[in-house]
Design goal:
single chain; mainly beta; Lipocalin; twelve-stranded antiparallel sheet; 2 helices; signal; TTHA0802/YceI-like_sf; Lipid/polyisoprenoid-bd_YceI; YceI family protein
Length: 195
């Protein structure tokens, strides 16, 4: 009899756990429909994107401010359209992909700043150096179950140890990163935004 009650108790706990999980919005990011790009003001065009990266958008409730956005980029997948520039960017003077192959952004909170705009402070790590940075986002497709999350973050490359230049090219210190993330709600209720 005791074993029977224990198994019923276990079933109830599992059911409650599943029920609680189903009340949380669950999103899937599709990298094939998304991009992570960068731009640096320079005497010769210096812009490109990363071909290999992943992002996770998770929520602990339907409140948009309970969300977390984490992005992980394979630094060696940089593509500026020039093999020479890519080799320099992958070198120890810039991304140092041999020692630190991954670039990450891990949000610490989400702050709604307008009907469809958000500031997402987080920890940005590149070359093994971590610093607080903020990603400013605009979301489209709210209430449709899927949409685009477009955002910009700018950082000073020298604060992350990228002090070198590229021969014969004058480059600025400010690097702009642009994300365009397509996310689709695959289960759970919609996210609740402020009016």
């Amino acid at each position: 009899m005791k074993i029977k009650y224990l198994s019923i108790f276990g079933f109830l706990i599992a059911s409650l756990s599943l029920s609680a999980h189903s009340q949380v919005p669950v999103f899937k990011v599709t990298p094939q429909q998304s991009s992570v790009k960068f731009f640096v003001k320079s005497s010769v065009a210096l812009a490109g994107d990363f071909k290999k990266w992943d992002a996770n958008l998770t929520f602990t409730s339907t409140d948009v401010t309970s969300g977390a956005l984490d992005i992980e980029i394979q630094a060696a997948s940089v593509d500026s359209g020039s093999g020479m520039k890519d080799d320099k960017l992958k070198s120890k003077d810039f991304f140092d992909v041999t020692e630190d192959p991954v670039i990450t952004f891990k949000s610490t909170k989400i702050v709604q700043t307008g009907p469809n705009t958000f500031d997402v402070p987080g920890t940005f790590t590149i070359r093994g150096v971590s610093k607080p940075e903020t990603l400013s986002l605009t979301v489209s497709g709210v209430g449709t179950g899927s949409g685009d999350i477009k955002g910009t973050m700018a950082f000073d490359r020298k604060e992350f140890g990228m002090n070198s230049g590229i021969p014969f090219i004058k480059i600025a210190d400010r690097v702009e990163v642009n994300v365009d993330i397509f996310a689709k709600r695959v289960s759970g209720p919609p996210v609740s935004l402020k009016k």
